[in-house]
Amino acid sequence: MVRPQEPGWDWSQNETWRHALFASASPLAVPRRESIVFDAPFMRRPLAGRRPAAMGAPDPHGGTKPIDPWHFLLLVEIGNFAVLRRHLGAPRADCLVLDVADRAGGLLPQARLAVVGRTMIELRFEGAERSDLDRAAADLGQLFAPPLTLDGEQHQVELLIAGAAAPCVALDDVRLVEEAEAALATARCEQRAVPHEVGERESGFDRVTLIRDLSRAVERDELFLQYQPKVHLRRQEIRSVEALVRWQHPTRGLVLPGHFITVAEEARLIGPITLWTLERAIADQRLLAEHGHDLMVFVNISGQLLGDSAFVARACQMVQGAGNKIGLEITETSVIRDPQTAIAHLKIFADMGITIAIDDYGAGLSSLAYLKQLPARELKIDKMFVMQLTSSNRDPLIVRSTIDLAHAMEMEVTAEGVETPAALALLSVMGCDMAQGFLISRPIGMAALIQFLDDKQHLNMVADPRDVFNRGASFWKSA
Known about the structure:
This protein has helices at about 15-25, 40-45, 80-90, 90-95, 95-105, 130-145, 175-190, 205-215, 255-265, 270-290, 310-320, 340-350, 370, 385, 395-410, 420-430, 445-455, 460, 475-479, and strands spanning about 70-80, 110-115, 120-125, 150, 155, 160-165, 195, 225-230, 235-250, 255, 295-300, 325-330, 355-360, 380, 410-415, 435. It is an alpha/beta fold and about 475 residues long.
């Protein structure tokens, strides 16, 4: 049977072709899987009757309606394709993406739909509000929540949904695709729908140039560290500091981690940057000790590096000569990629006496199954729960239960994002061990940190945090 080639042809509306296609998926009829895999031009053909929204929709009064201000790209991937292929067989499984495209196209008839691989489709559409992307992703998730009937049997198709949004007036199609692919990578790790927004790009701030400049940043000595203290609430003393890497670009100025850490991971530059950070943190820890402040310094470790045996070996070699004053912070979601390897490497660090802290706890997929296996001695509650501690009904319950859970597992608890005396007082009453945030100190350089410690400035905030409950109403209104 010859595949139709007419422009704008819609396979989903041609039942004869559709039934013939699925019948041809029989192992007897199609001995080679390649014979039912469509070529790229066919897969990327827009379905009939779907006018590109950028052209404007017809107006009954004549002319066209205004163009919607937002452009969206949704990537939908079959997450359990390998499992379904074992049940359905390879030829039928290769047609599964067409079933997904058929149902998704029915849900979003205004979208331009394309099949871009054996397991993935993309949908492009416009909307009046940024939230249209979130609603479309949620509706797709609900659409595929019930099992699908495939060849007379019920099968659960698990979708990974990710997307990106950009203003139509400043649309950069390459950037939109990059953001959608980055969102999909996050969705694969966290097993949830992930939308990203493409903001207006700074002049010359493109990823290719950023990667090129970042690869030279270490050798050009453009990176530097700032430190944020963590105060122990009961002992009223600074127990440790967190090292935070910054990039002073020669022409763009200060580039914060949120703009280059993800790029460094994608470009496989995170290893050299982390080793540089570790080396500098070890040197700064010794400098602190020389000034009478023998504090532990924590360094953040990317989940990508927890599966790298060469990095782990090199990091152990570096830390071994620094005593037990270097700690490592890892996010709980960083072990999801390869839990067995990541946990094994973390135990190597722990056996050397390195303190492991779980960072941003509660922000991702918090799993007790992973938590009980991690050799951690400190748990850091994500700032999203702490910053609304005094204005939310649920956040105090979550924070208190997390503190009790961590203590039961013999871990100390640090609250991140402490910005008000009221939050600090409440954390103290709850039994939280340590606090970190702008109320105590912003991230500061080494010279400023030494001065901060010499002057014992933290005592201004933690002398007796519970006294804040005795303040008058005027204080609480401004807290």
